[in-house]
Design goal:
2 copies of one chain form a homodimer. The first copy, chain A, is of the alpha+beta class. Chain A folds into 2 domains: 79 residues, Pseudouridine synthase I, catalytic domain, N-terminal subdomain (Alpha-Beta Plaits, 2-Layer Sandwich), CATH 3.30.70; 137 residues, 2-Layer Sandwich (Alpha-Beta Plaits), CATH 3.30.70.660. In chain A, 23% of the residues lie in helices and 24% in strands. The first copy, chain A, has 5 helices and 11 strands, in the order βαβββαβββαβββααβ. In chain A, the strands form 2 sheets. In chain A, strands 1, 3, 5, 6, 7, 8, 9, 10 and 11 form a 9-stranded mixed sheet that branches. The first copy, chain A, has a two-stranded antiparallel ribbon with strand order 2-4. The longest helix of chain A has 13 residues. The two termini of chain A are 12 Å apart. The relative contact order of chain A is 0.18. The mean pLDDT of chain A is 92. Chains A and B meet through β1 and β5 of A and β1 and β5 of B.
């Protein structure tokens, strides 16, 4: 389980990426070539508090020392929180049961200097009660075609959202979604749509017809990456 | 009232500083030369959620537009939260009644990638109960000579701490001090001393004799700047 700051997961030529940094760190301590498999990609600007990844190794380093050892080779913007041995058949992506994402909106009048890179500042007053009601319409199994980045392909856009919550705390609003999988930009588009509910542009019950329409243009805007955080991956 | 990230307050030749940045921003919108007086200096690495400063202006910009206008000229690591008109005799430093500081210790096993610049990571298990008891010994009027950076001069090292609290929340420990004034490095040294209590190096009741000794070397280490935050200045 690892925590990272606003660097994309996937390897890209000449670009800083989490996967490459961690593979390099593990290679340094094990002397092996490492292929890291994550629970999924996260885009540049998106944070993680609980990303997971697996790799194969013949190293003799005791498992309880692994996190510490890898961290000693990593830059401070990436931290391994825990390492554990898993079954040979375990696969960080295919074995995922559910994932939890959080989108953070700073709803105070002024943006925060300190937290500006981990939240989206939106100073207009929001109707939290309506946003809470709207969130419930996302729960269950739906075709989320209207809530994925247009132009991206994926076999099916049907996903299950187990829990969709809007939490208000001290001027900040947290949109927390737990589901069996998420389409590209899906959380950021859902957050943008809930924002439209919050400002009264659409009604909570409109979510139902937007889902049914399967039309991207009927949903809200894709909110910026920095407000998004992968909180937990469950197996 | 303003929020800033880890940049020193005071002007220094060729160095980024909060005072200079804000003076420049206000000058740009008012066309005047601005002398900003803050509630006090903060060192590089120390954060503020509630620093205050005053200045004189003949500008016609309505007061309720001032914060927004200054923010439009400032880099995102400095945000003005509020501007208000005050009495001619008001002085940001001399009129201060009390200040509240918070020192944040991340007491989890692994450092945080996301919050690494606003907290001090200390993975050793701490006895919070003892730290809470120890904190109470700082409350009241004392000579805090043992708790100021050695070699720094100030007329008197007598200060009143109105409230000293140790709060534990989800693997993080917050040391919160409210007082009529603080000596150079005083909060960071108190935090370091409470850490010594937490690991059992000294007992809570030792605080009393350390205060009485007035010897810097008997108190704990000065914890790093990044864990410190000026939370509020009260008038």
């Amino acid at each position: 389980m690892m925590e990272k700051v606003s660097i994309g997961w996937q390897k890209q030529r000449n670009k800083l990426n989490i996967q490459g940094e961690i593979e390099k760190a593990i290679s340094e301590i094990t002397g092996e070539q490492i292929d890291l498999i994550a629970s999924g990609r996260t885009d540049a600007g998106v944070h993680s508090l609980g990303q997971t990844a697996n790799f194969h190794t013949n190293s003799n380093i005791p498992i309880e020392k692994f996190a510490l050892a890898i961290n000693s080779k990593l830059k401070l913007s990436i931290r391994i929180k825990k390492a554990e041995e898993v079954d040979e058949r375990f696969h960080s992506r295919y074995s995922v049961k559910s994932k939890k994402y959080r989108y953070t909106i700073n709803n105070q009048e002024t943006a925060s200097a300190i937290f500006r890179n981990i939240e989206y500042h939106f100073p207009v007053k929001l109707d939290i009660q309506k946003m809470k009601i709207a969130a419930k319409f996302f729960e269950g199994e739906h075709d989320f075609k209207a809530f994925k980045a247009s132009g991206t392909s994926s076999k099916s856009s049907i996903r299950i959202i187990y829990k969709a919550e809007v939490i208000s705390d001290n001027g900040r609003i947290y949109i927390e979604l737990t589901g069996n999988g998420f389409l590209y930009n899906m959380v950021r588009i859902i957050a943008g749509t809930l924002l439209d509910v919050g400002i009264g542009k659409i009604n909570p019950e409109d979510i139902k017809s937007i889902l049914e329409s399967k039309e991207r243009k009927r949903a809200g805007k894709t909110l910026p990456a920095q407000g998004l955080c992968l909180v937990e991956v469950m197996y």
